[in-house]
Every structure is written in structure tokens, then in C-alpha cells.
Design goal:
Layout lengths: L20 E4 L12 E4 L23 H31 L1 H48 L2 H14 L7 H8 L8 H37 L3 H22 L6 H18 L6 H8 L9 H24 L12 H13 L4
Parallel strand pairs: 1-2
Helix pairs in contact: 1-2, 2-3, 2-7, 3-5, 4-5, 5-6, 5-9, 5-10, 6-7, 6-9, 7-9, 9-10
Subcellular location: Cell inner membrane
Pfam families: DUF697
GO cellular component, one term: plasma membrane
């Protein structure tokens, strides 16, 4: 058996219009004839699909942290109740009408607190339902079970039953209920009819937020102002995307949603501005055309866009089945167009 070994080619000069020079994609295996040259393009970090966050099973057992905060909350509630009781009793001792006024105010405050607690509980239950629904859709897509697909798609449609703007999409989905459709195809129908309009609205919100951040941080005089703008816009964007996809988070729900978004960014590496991202942002001649402050604004806009994309992955009630997840280039590409069009 004869084995042929090929010695490494020595460095040599070549012309780009040489017919022996070919351009290959990064993901293609290349082989050339002797003397040929292959130019391999670097992968575009903005075209790479974001990694999917692993779905963790929801913990049902009582944890030490939950026990601590529950006991602390109960103790605080008892302390507030005891304080309110003493205030009402003291006012009754002074004057009956003052006592009745204090009792009415205490009852009004108690009803308002109960309404707030119920609202927060419903918001947390709704977010938990969306998490479970997304996990069920992902499992159904893997198994291609038609019966399970019919069930989960019905739950997704029910989630938006009270929103008038989804009436046409829900009617289009209902027209296929009696059809014999595979499980994956039924999921694709729901994604195309119901999710795509919501995805477009979410991407528009991300593009607007990233543009605002890039403009404000490009002209702000202090780094502290930059940090405050990015933080406030990111919080508003997370809440906005949660509202778009039906989460309607309250205060506690927003904190839970922000925690999940941070976990998604940690998994996908979205908050890390590496060399590849910096080269992409300052490549293509931008380094010679824009100022340092404008470059910082572009990078802050990119980070805001990454937060928005992570919020989509967390708030969307079903994973991307047929469509590709939106990329940074799709939601923040106007930042590069705007900066490249304005040389310094």
C-alpha cells in the first residue's frame, strides 16, 4: 500500500484575479490542485445563530432561600399588622372619628396590598405557563407527535385569545384544525400565522431601543450616563418584549424575567464583547471614519440588541421551529449603515 505525503506549500505571492485563486466558505472542506490558492473567509459573528438556552426543569421542592424569604415576609407582615393595630387603637383612644378614619385607611391599604399580591401571583403564574409551554412545544417538535402538537398549539392560541390583533391569525389556525397535519407542520403553521407578527413587533422594538442607546451614549459626556442609559433601556426593552409575547410581568415577574434573560446571556456569551465582535464593529473602514465616542455608542447599541434577542428567546412561548432566530445584524444593522455614512 503506497502512502503519498504532501509537503506543506511555501508562502508565495498571488494576484486576486488569478484563475487559480478560489474563494471558499468557512464551513466547506476545500481541496485544490497543486499550485492553487484558496481564500477562506472568516465567519461572520453577526450571522451565527444564537445558541439555544437549555430548558431547565422547574423546581417544585422548597429551597432554603425560599424558606428564608417566606419566613422573613411573614414576619414583616406581622410586624406591619401589629403596628397598624396599635396606631388604630391609639387613635380610637384619642377620638372615635380619628379611629374610624384610620381603620378605613388601613382597610383600604390592605385591599390594595391584596390586589397587588394577586396581580403579581397571576403574572408569575403566566410566566411559568409560558416556560412550560415552550418546553412542551420543543419536546413535541422533537417527537413529531400529531396529538401532542394539536394540544400545545391550542394552548398557544388560547394564550392570545384576548388580544384583538391576533384574531386573523387565530382564525387562520382554526381553519386547519380539521385537516390531517403532521405535528411539526402544525407547529410551523402556528409559528407562521401567530408568531411572525409578534416577532416583527419585537425586532422593531429592539431596533428602536438599540438606536436610542447608540445615539444617546455617543453624545453623553460621562460614562456613568452611558451605564444608566443602557440599564434603563435594557429594563424597558425586557418589559416591552414580555408584553408583546403575552407575559405581562409585574414587579416580581420582571425580576424573574430579567434573571432568565441574564442566564440566557451567560449561556450564549451575549454580554461578552470579544475580539471578533469588536473587529466586526470597527472593521470595513469604520475605524477610520467614526470617532471613538461614536464607536462606543455602536457597541452599546449592540449590547442592547443582544439583551433584546435574549428576551425574545426567553419570552417567546414556543421556540423557533421553521424560522431562524433574529440576529444582531437584522435588528442593529442600521447602526453600521448610519456610522459608515457619516465619516468624521
Amino acid at each position: 500500500m503506497n502512502e503519498q505525503t504532501q509537503s506543506p506549500r511555501r508562502p508565495a505571492a498571488f494576484r486576486l484575479n488569478d484563475p487559480a485563486v478560489t474563494l471558499a466558505r468557512p464551513d466547506e472542506a476545500t481541496s485544490t490542485v497543486r499550485g492553487g490558492v484558496v481564500l477562506t473567509a472568516d465567519p461572520d459573528p453577526f450571522e451565527a445563530e444564537p445558541a439555544a438556552i437549555p430548558v431547565k426543569p422547574r423546581r417544585k421542592k422548597l429551597t432554603l432561600g425560599g424558606l428564608f424569604w417566606g419566613a422573613l415576609g411573614a414576619l414583616g407582615s406581622m410586624a406591619v399588622g401589629l403596628w397598624a393595630t396599635r396606631v388604630v387603637e391609639d387613635l380610637f383612644a384619642r377620638s372615635d372619628w380619628l379611629g374610624w378614619i384610620a381603620l378605613g385607611l388601613a382597610a383600604l391599604a390592605g385591599l390594595a396590598a391584596l390586589a397587588i399580591v394577586m396581580r403579581e401571583a397571576l403574572a408569575l403564574m403566566r410566566l411559568g405557563k409560558i416556560e412550560d409551554l415552550r418546553a412542551s412545544v420543543e419536546e413535541t417538535h422533537k417527537t413529531d407527535d400529531a396529538k401532542a402538537a394539536r394540544k400545545v398549539t391550542s394552548e398557544v392560541v388560547t394564550l392570545y385569545a384576548t388580544r384583538p390583533e391576533t384574531a386573523r391569525a387565530r382564525a387562520a389556525i382554526a381553519s386547519n384544525d380539521d385537516e390531517i397535519v403532521d405535528g411539526s407542520d402544525r407547529l410551523r403553521i402556528v409559528e407562521r400565522e401567530l408568531m411572525e407578527p409578534l416577532d416583527r413587533e419585537a425586532t422593531r422594538a429592539i431596533a428602536a431601543a438599540s438606536k436610542r442607546v447608540s445615539v444617546v451614549t455617543a453624545v453623553s459626556p460621562r460614562a456613568l450616563v452611558d451605564l444608566a442609559v443602557v440599564l434603563i433601556e435594557s429594563m424597558r426593552l425586557i418589559r416591552r418584549i414580555g408584553m408583546i409575547y403575552g407575559g405581562r410581568p409585574g414587579t416580581l415577574g420582571f425580576l424573574k424575567l430579567a434573571k432568565h434573560v441574564g442566564a440566557h446571556l451567560a449561556v450564549t456569551g451575549g454580554m461578552g464583547v470579544g475580539d471578533g465582535l469588536l473587529e466586526q464593529a470597527l472593521g470595513h473602514g469604520l475605524a477610520a471614519k467614526i470617532s471613538a465616542r461614536l464607536g462606543e455608542g455602536v457597541l452599546n447599541g449592540i449590547l442592547t440588541a443582544r439583551v433584546g434577542l435574549a428576551a425574545i428567546a426567553v419570552c417567546r412561548p414556543m421556540p423557533f421551529v421553521e424560522r431562524r432566530p433574529p440576529s444582531v445584524r437584522e435588528v442593529a444593522g442600521n447602526l453600521f449603515d448610519r456610522t459608515s455614512a457619516k465619516p468624521e
